[in-house]
Amino acid sequence: MELTHEQIAQYQRDGYLSLPGVFAGAALDTLRGAMRRIIAADRDWNFYESEGGPVRAYNACHWDEPVFADLVRAPETLTPARQILGGDVHLFQFKMNPKAPFGGSTGWAWHQDYPRWKTSDGMTENRAINVAVFLDDVTEFNGPLFLVPGSHRDGVLDGEEHANTPGLVALELTDTVVARAIDAGGIVSAKGPAGTVLVFDPNIVHASTSNISPFTRHTAYLTYNHVENRLVNPTREQHIASTDYTPLWLETEVA
Ligand code: SIN
Ligand code: MN
Question: Taking the complete model, does pTM exceed 0.90, yes or no?
Fold first, then answer.
């Protein structure tokens, strides 16, 4: 799935691009089947909201589930990532966030992704991209991602460490920084039906609130990184920050 020049320009200007209807019908059913198997499995790579609490993130789903391994190499996800990053990419991170209903998930405070990857993993530059695949419908009710358009263009902003779930901590942005960013760019709510693909820049300011609705909001986040953009002092485990720089190929490119 090739992005047009206009879509790439829009991504560069706004820091995100929403593509509804990328997965539908049988392809979407297959992804949702994989989602259900991950939920049912006893996995070592899950993070929990609290001890005994709901899952906050199912990490490295592509290790356990061939459907998600295929998703990493799919034209709908890999092609836009390679186009935007301009070269070969590897998979840096795969997670599926369930956004537990009835307030079971605490949400995600305002942050940028790249500062955490720089601090914890030594990612040299922001030459990465998040490709989110909505596995449930995302509405105003079940904790959609809030994005601040254009905020990625200001680079790394002032943040502070926050003791959240270990391994998933973000450097939370200060209120002043968030207010300034929103004053400049406004806020959008990334809603869309299951099967939507949302690509966003790791420096875009984003957050989400808890989900008090009865509806889950499973979203898979695939983070691709340019193969030249090495992690110079990785401190986190492979299921969170992969140092396997093997370039990814579409199935059709493999002889
Ligand atoms: C994230 O920012 O990494 C996840 C936010 C969300 O799933 O709402
Ligand atoms: Mn994030």
Answer: yes
